[in-house]
Amino acid sequence: MKVVFERLYDSYHHELFQFIFYMVKNRQVAEDLVQEVYIKVLKSLDTFKGDSSEKTWIFSIARYTTIDYFRSQKRKRSRIAEFFDWHEKGDSLYDQSPLPDELTVKNEEMKLIYRNLDKCTIDQKSVLILRYIQSFSIQETADVLGFSLSKVKTTQHRGLKTLRKLLTENQEKEGDA
Amino acid sequence: MKSHYNDDNDKQMPELLKNMPQVNDHLDKNELFQRISQEMGKSKPLKQKKSHLLPILSTILTAVIILAIIPVLFNNTMFQSHEEQSSNNAADSKLAIEEYSSRMEEDSGQSDDGNPEFSLFGKKSEDLVLNEIDDQSDVVHAAVTDLQGQYVIPLSFIKQKTEKLTGYYNDLENYINNEKWGVSDFLFKGASFKIDYTNNLVMVNLPEGFSLNPGSANANVFQELLSNMFGQLGLNKVIFETIHNQGVNLGPIGIVKELPIRARQKSSYKVYQASPQKRKFLIPVPQTGQMDIEAAFDEMKQNEEAFNVFRTIPNDIRFDINKSGEQLAVTFSDGILTDTSITPQKKNTMIEAMLMTAKSYGYKSVKFNNAGIKKIGKYNLAKAIKVPLAVNPIMHEQ
């Protein structure tokens, strides 16, 4: 198993970790989810049919694992919300996750993009991360997300538009202040 | 003030995103491998313990069977003996299943009017939903997960009303053939169940040493499995009976003594099949947020190949939706279902998956309009079709 793991690690680990990190924005959670992805991949490598590339297959597992994490977080938050009416606060708490070290040295614009990625839909966020931060092709992105090529393009367009709008609003607020 | 983030500057936002910093994992490769090895090894001890017991139990069982059969053979009263034992729960349930299977075959034979769409009903394995049962039978709901533990696969068994429900639940592990079907092992192996209708709860006694593997998915799936098994009986709580009443460790949820049974989730039904040789199942893919049924049907056109989950509505199928009380109307684009490139089995699966999806949204029946054909499989499209009683009936096992 170690040989297989090492091959997968050497081929995909950096990209895999980075994709999950940008999705969940929490280093500890990203480490746990990456571990979960490797376990799923190692357990089902025998059933991998080769219809898609190994890379897009692994990333599609990573994507569903992060979506499942979001679902579990949502359920947890709604359970807590049954006792305490802190929906609003719950959302704002999520936005306050610390910036990664790599980003603290970057300019305000980068930090704003990082924060506002969460305000896109999960599909838009996935497409933007895969296409621009991970440099995946449109075809690779479509394979990972199970989308058609045109759906990737539309989602990418809408995601960029959402980000543009959010940054503009922020700029206007600062102008008013 | 005019913003410099405007639509005319198409390349600016992609450039900014491309310049986002590279983020590295600080965890050492070897340490990660050790953690993964540990996690992968954790679920094995219970299985290994059981597999050691298996040959011994098989030997004892064989000896008992031989001892029971020899006198019967000598007295030449094998059939009488079989009848005498028919009050036995297991025999009753097997009988119910066999009777049901043969009835299904007769039914499909009677309704075969030469329409090629009917020919697929000779194959029992292709029945992905249970439409009706007679008044002497009940449905028992069970659930397993796919091989990666990502999705819940609901199963339904038929039992005779005379047979005790609790006994059937306690025997469930014997009816689930996980390796042959390409699904995960039954999570409640060795567990026992007691249903308390007075207080609308089920008490679950888990085997000693039971624990869930850590991971965000496992605890949720555990709760979903229980909700699928007992939610339809009108129960609303699971109580875990453990030694010293210390509760059960459910990973991310923590140590719990009881769990609420969740209401049925709105879902898109897709096909799960681990490999072409394995059995097909219809599985509910839960919908997030306030997704309406149109979006749920759209989701059914998407494959999730990484999980061996496949679309149930072919990409080219177009339709409009009309909601009227408890009935849903699906109006197809002209003649789209006459397309012969879509196999009869796929059309049948599409109807069954749409019916189950409609059921999860609270509809009682669905009327399919403008299909271009009168019947798909056993479904007469001239009338509104009632949503199924249950999904993935296990008729004869297997």
UniProtKB/TrEMBL annotation, chain A:
GO BP terms: DNA-templated transcription initiation; response to stress
RNA polymerase sigma factor 70 region 4 type domain span: 122-163
Molecular functions per Gene Ontology: DNA binding; sigma factor activity
Residue stretches making up the RNA polymerase sigma-70 region domain: 8-75
Claim: Repressor is one of the keywords in the record: no
Pfam families the record matches: Sigma70_r2, Sigma70_r4_2
Protein name: RNA polymerase sigma factor
Taxonomic lineage of the native organism: Bacteria, Bacillati, Bacillota, Bacilli, Bacillales
TrEMBL record, chain B:
Superkingdom of this protein's organism: Bacteria
Keywords: Membrane, Transmembrane, Transmembrane helix
Transmembrane regions listed in the UniProt entry: 53-74
Name assigned to this protein: Anti-sigma-X factor RsiX
Organism: Virgibacillus oceani
